[in-house]
Hints:
This protein is of the alpha/beta class. It has helices spanning 23-34, 54-60, 77-87, 106-115, 147-153, 166-171, 185-195, 218-236, 243-263, 268-281, 288-305; strands spanning 13-19, 41-47, 66-70, 92-95, 101-102, 120-129, 134-137, 162-165, 200-212. The chain folds into 2 domains: 13-212, Spore Coat Polysaccharide Biosynthesis Protein SpsA, Chain A; 239-305. The protein contains 11 helices and 9 strands. Strands 1, 2, 3, 4, 5, 6, 7, 8 and 9 form a 9-stranded mixed β-sheet that branches.
Amino acid sequence: MVQTNDMSKQPLVTVVIPTFNHAEFLKQALDSVVAQTYKDWEAIVVNNFSTDDTIEIVESFNDERIRLINFRNNGIIAASRNRGIEAARGKYIAFLDSDDIWYSEKLQVCVDQAESGAQLICHGELWVNTDNSRREIMYGPAKRAKYQSLLFRGNCISTSATFITTQLLRSVNGFDESDQIVTAEDYDLWLRLAETKPKTVFVRKILGEFHRLKNSASSAVLRNLASEKTVLEKHFALQPKTIFTKLKIRHRLAIANYGAARQLSQQPRQALDLFFSAIRLSPMFIRTYPGLIILAKRTLLKKTES
């Protein structure tokens, strides 16, 4: 039976996997956990009352290390992750989104780092797009994960690539469950963790795959931008009210607009507005100009072809 009440053995690692109607991906995610060379783990699948075969997939493993919790998160994935943190028995927590996978040595590498004193560990990932194009991404480095750098230069950590001490996560009360920061709740967590100055290690090795399910609709991009800006406003409010800080804030907002504009290549009007907004906020943010030129060339090419 998958769900077990045997609490006699406390695992060293808890894997938290929130899921909703991802049965087709969940099996691969769980397969990648079961295949780990490091075996002292428990996996908690936090199921948002899926209507597909999620429960059957979990039960098919018949592994007492895998626990199923049915939990209604009302569209807030942060609530599911927090439920997993609450139920965790491990000294360490690793997050795995149900559409991502790990390579077999991921947990062993992270445990070795953690047992040597690291409190927050993040490794490289292979980004896999829906068209099967791939890109290797290395996060960090450690100096980029300090609070001021995270705040003013942007996120450099990926949720499915993190391995964190349970005590540290609980000390900051886990993820913020506000519906105003959905899709950016992880960024907010990394910022709040950075304020505690944890010993952070970035492993320069690809230990998993981040599967980028296609969702380039302008509404999704703009919602994520709004969430990111809400997180930024929350943390900007804590900064000193100096002219230098105000300039840094404008530059950071320009970075956010630029990032969203790059994702809106199929909606040139919206992308153009964001590029120009980035220029108004921070004219010296040089990357905006090549992005604007590329957008103009693509738009003209499409008009020519039509």
